[in-house]
Amino acid sequence: MDLMTVTPAVYGPVRSWRFGQSLGIDLLGAVSTCSFQCRYCQLGTIERLTCDRTEFVPTQQVATELHQMPPAAIDVVTFSGSGEPTLARNLAAVIAVVRQQVRRPIVVLTNGTLLGDRTVRQDLAAVDIVAVKIDAVTAQQWQALNRPATRLNLEAVFAGIMTFREMFKGHLAIQTMVMAPWSQQDEERYKTLIQALSPDEVQLNTPLRPRPLTPPSQCPRQS
Ligand code: SF4
Fold first, then answer.
1. Of the N and C termini of the chain, which has fewer Cβ atoms inside 10 Å?
2. 38 alpha carbon – ligand 1 mean position (Å)
3. Residue with the nearest Cα to atom 4 of ligand 1?
4. In the predicted structure, residue 73 carries a pLDDT above the cut 90
């Protein structure tokens, strides 16, 4: 395979404030692909808005890139990059390759929208840390901030996250981007949801980093 003609799937390591030196795996390829179009997304406008799983990057490409990678100090391997990593149908196969070749804790950053799918839950059950995005507790907030693909339903997404919580043995983090002020009622809803999910960690973030002015294909990948 001529790796000069394809977009690399392995990048970094990059410094992650939360996880240390993180080797990134991007299974989406050159076209930003997600089931959300978050207003604050560092990728800019998402080019492919979808909920359908597809293989975007061949598993063998990742294996070859990991094999050819120069030695580097790495704390974790993080699946993130140009969109939502669970949209990659070969996620489980690539996780198995990473387990074999890198032998570091594996992190997946997800928006949680596909966790209603049993296959996705099974794929993610094999990793050490899953960080799930929950930015909104009402459909109105969700539509305004995360701008989901039309097929998605907030209550169904919460149900999928809850089902995953019940079976996942690893470290579950909830990541929440705090944007507009919440009403007291919204805060109570959020607390109730978090108590029900009982995650190992809650990360409250603010969009401090500027949004890109360059086209998405030239933007830094998510980490
Ligand atoms: S911030 Fe994450 S979930 Fe939101 S659009 Fe960008 S890649 Fe998708």
1. N
2. 5
3. 38
4. yes
Decide whether any atom of ligand 1 lies within 6 Å of the 83 Cβ: yes
Average pLDDT, integer, range 190-206: 96
Residue 186 Cα to ligand 1 midpoint, Å, equals 22
Class of domain 3-208: alpha beta
Each domain of the chain, given as residue ranges in start order, spans 3-208
pTM of structure: 0.91
Mean pLDDT of 88-100: 98
Q: Residues 99-121: what's their mean pLDDT?
A: 97
What band does 214 get if pLDDT is binned at 50, 70 and 90?
A: very low
Query: How many angstroms separate the alpha carbon of residue 1 from the centre of ligand 1?
Result: 30
Q: Look at 155 and 211; give whichever has higher pLDDT.
A: 155
DSSP string, the chain: --GGGS--SEEEEEEETTTEEEEEEE-STTS-EES---TT-TT-S-SEE----B--S-HHHHHHHHHHPPP---SEEEEEBSB-GGGBTTHHHHHHHHHHHT-S-EEEEE-STTTTSHHHHHHHTTSSEEEEE---SSHHHHHHHT---TT--HHHHHHHHHHHHHH--SEEEEEEE--SPPPHHHHHHHHHHHHHH--SEEEEE---SPPPSS-GGGSPPB-
